[in-house]
Design brief:
By secondary structure, this protein is of the alpha+beta class. Helix content is about 35%, strand content about 20%. The strands form 2 sheets. It has a 5-stranded antiparallel β-sheet. It has a two-stranded antiparallel ribbon with strand order 6-7. The protein is globular, with a radius of gyration of 15 Å.
Length: about 150
């Protein structure tokens, strides 16, 4: 089953869209708590399917980067301790996942967040990243638009 997976600015972790109300989205944390809460139009809500990583040529969709990471880690939690890794360790590791990433526009914090999201998804049994994150035809409505309705 396809789930709309969201990131909410200022809130840790990832969320799945449960339903939408008049001026908010109802989201559920993708973790052991499964806590539900509203996300309002004022919250910066981003669907993971709308995110891409900069490369030296064209941007690569997030699901493809997560798929590459999953292949490297054999769909197990990340072997790199991203919280304690140095900038060079992060960049060397990420270079194995996405060799052509734009070293000027992809920051260490982006790599840390990507690994954190990967770990959250894997620990919660979401490993078919293409199915979970790739936008489907007719799924043009963004999370912001849904919240505004």
């Amino acid at each position: 089953m396809l789930q709309t997976i969201l990131s909410i600015s200022g809130k840790p972790g990832l969320y799945k869209l449960v339903s939408s109300g008049k001026a908010s989205l109802i989201v559920e944390a993708i973790d052991e708590t499964h806590k539900r809460m509203p996300a309002f139009a004022t919250d910066r809500v981003t669907s993971l399917s709308d995110i891409a990583m900069y490369t030296d040529s064209e941007d690569v969709p997030l699901w493809q980067v997560l798929k590459n990471l999953g292949e490297k880690e054999q769909l197990k939690p990340c072997s790199l301790n991203y919280k304690k890794a140095t900038s060079q360790e992060l960049r060397d590791y990420f270079g194995e996942v996405l060799p052509a990433f734009d070293r000027d526009r992809v920051h260490d914090s982006d790599i840390r967040k990507l690994i954190q999201w990967y770990d959250i998804l894997v620990k919660n049994g979401i490993t078919n990243f293409e199915e979970a994150l790739k936008p489907k035809n007719g799924e043009e409505q963004t999370a912001e638009q849904a919240a505004a309705e």
